Amino acid sequence: MPDSSKPVPHVCLFILKFGDGGVERMMVNIARGLALIGVKVDFIIKNSNAPYLHLLPENVRVIKFPVAKQSDSLPRLLDYLQQNDPDILLTAKTRDDEIAMQARQHHSGKTRFYLRPGTALISRMKARGMGWLRRWLKTRNLVKLFNQTDGVVAVSQGVADEVMALSGIPRERINVIKNPTITPELYQQSLAELPDPWLAEGQPPVILGIGGLRRQKDFPTLLRAFAQVRQQQPCRLMILGQGNKEAQLKQLAGELAIEDDFRLAGFVDNPYVYLKHAGLFVLSSLWEGSPNVLTEALALGTPSVSTDCPSGPFEITRAGEVAPLVEVGDVDGLAKAMLQTLNQPPDPEKLKAAVSEYTLERSARSYLAAFGLTAPVAVDG
């Protein structure tokens, strides 16, 4: 039972604009993990008709700010802080960070404000080819935010290094905490009925890519590497996701003459059953923060290959020990690693062990420690 002599920690997660991305899913998982270890959790959103929210347990209080614009939420947030004064307010997107920092200037309670950057910020700006003026303005804004906050939670050491390089804030104000990626439903959903005949036993191995069809994921490099692998052994390539590069990828598949063994499967509700039965998972990204899908693939024991992009894969794969790392954009290197891993798959148990720390509870306890709070603990008698 909880130790009633200690106050129960109170954490608020503030994420207004809610889509189907990894940031949203991880914020939900952070809330789940904190609630699991007895923390009082509030979850502030714009509206409740959003993905992943059904995963929140009943003891997480969901609060709606049904505002027309995100900036209109500041008075509501100030009212919430005045009435509730949680120990911590955690944000994970730049616009929410800005609103939170504005609220911080006006709130006189005990609440401390933490930012959670989820991607390699400098690398993202470089890879997107951002013009110097826009990059300068964005950098100036980020520097201001990081220097106003009480603390930063980075999802990988690479992200932490870029935050330090960008903002100049001291290392002791940055905590690196692994994402709460591994959940009970990951394993449950991986056992679902096979959704595609390509995944059946006796079929050529399926090489799987997962993510939005956008520049960051660099799927053209994956298609070109697959074309090389396919020349040497039978295999198929399937990509789960949707985005603005769909037509480009279909055209490239035609140019490479791989259409018969290539499929864009679109967005799927349960990617884990695909991951479980894939012969190989490949992450071909230009940049990341801590790629959850790579963690999930390893947790399911699926052989994997990744680019050594900033940041996350180096840490998740333990410096390439459990999954080969190749240079970003290196078609030949990626093809070689894919072929080698297909022909000599690693021990699944070794892959699972490598990511054993990426669980709801471990992550939640790390967050609470970073916040300087103590989880309610069971006591004898």
From TrEMBL:
Residues 21-180 form the Glycosyltransferase subfamily 4-like N-terminal domain. Signal peptide: none annotated. It holds the Pfam family Glycos_transf_1. GO terms for molecular function: glycosyltransferase activity. SUPFAM superfamilies: UDP-Glycosyltransferase/glycogen phosphorylase. Keywords: Transferase. GO terms for biological process: carbohydrate derivative metabolic process. It comes from the Bacteria. Residues 198-354 form the Glycosyl transferase family domain. This is Glycosyl transferase. It comes from Candidatus Thiodiazotropha endoloripes.
